[in-house]
């Protein structure tokens, strides 16, 4: 697959290369502040900009870790396999929520919304069971 750039793009890219390192250098204090905020309060100012997306990512990744490293299952599930299936459905829904925000594909939006809503219902139902 060949990418066709607009005429003059490469020239302007090379011309502004010295400014890119300056932008990166300028961001270091802000990123350090955000890391400090996350260490002390669990979230940073920049996370609130799209807080729903941030929470979807954190929840999805935390549930993936719980699924892969759990040491039991709640009484609501009869087997370990059943608990993993529930976790997979919830993870799938939070993944759909993240994709909704990243990919604006109107044809898939309805399917992603349906998966997200089903996942949220399961999340509420099993909220007290997310332990290890």
**Strand residue content:** under 5%
- Give me the count of strands: 0
Structural class: mainly alpha
Give average pLDDT, whole number. 85
Instruction: State the low-pLDDT regions, or none.
Output: none
Main pleated-sheet profile: none
Shape: extended
Q: Calculate Rg over CA atoms.
A: 21 Å
Q: Could you give a short description of this structure?
A:
Helices cover 71% and strands 0% of the residues.
Give a description of the structure.
It is built from five helices and no strands. It is mainly alpha-helical and about 130 residues long. The chain has a domain of about 80 residues. Helix 4 packs antiparallel against helix 5. The longest helix is centred in the N-terminal third of the chain and has 25 residues. The radius of gyration is 21 Å and the shape is extended. About 10% of the residues are buried. The mean pLDDT is about 85.
Give the key terms.
132 residues; mainly alpha; 71% helix
List the helices and strands and how they pair.
Blueprint: H1 9-15, H2 17-41, H3 51-69, H4 80-102, H5 106-125
């Amino acid at each position: 697959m060949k990418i066709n750039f607009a005429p003059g793009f490469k020239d302007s890219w090379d011309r502004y290369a010295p400014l890119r390192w300056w932008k990166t250098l300028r961001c270091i204090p802000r990123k350090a502040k955000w890391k400090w905020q996350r260490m002390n309060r669990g979230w940073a100012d920049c996370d609130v900009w799209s807080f729903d997306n941030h929470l979807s990512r954190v929840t999805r990744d935390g549930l993936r870790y719980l699924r892969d490293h759990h040491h039991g299952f709640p009484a609501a599930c009869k087997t370990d396999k059943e608990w993993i299936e529930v976790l997979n459905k919830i993870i799938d829904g939070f993944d759909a929520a993240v994709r909704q925000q990243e990919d604006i594909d109107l044809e898939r939006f309805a399917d992603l919304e349906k998966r997200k809503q089903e996942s949220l219902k399961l999340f509420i139902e099993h909220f007290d069971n997310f332990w290890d």
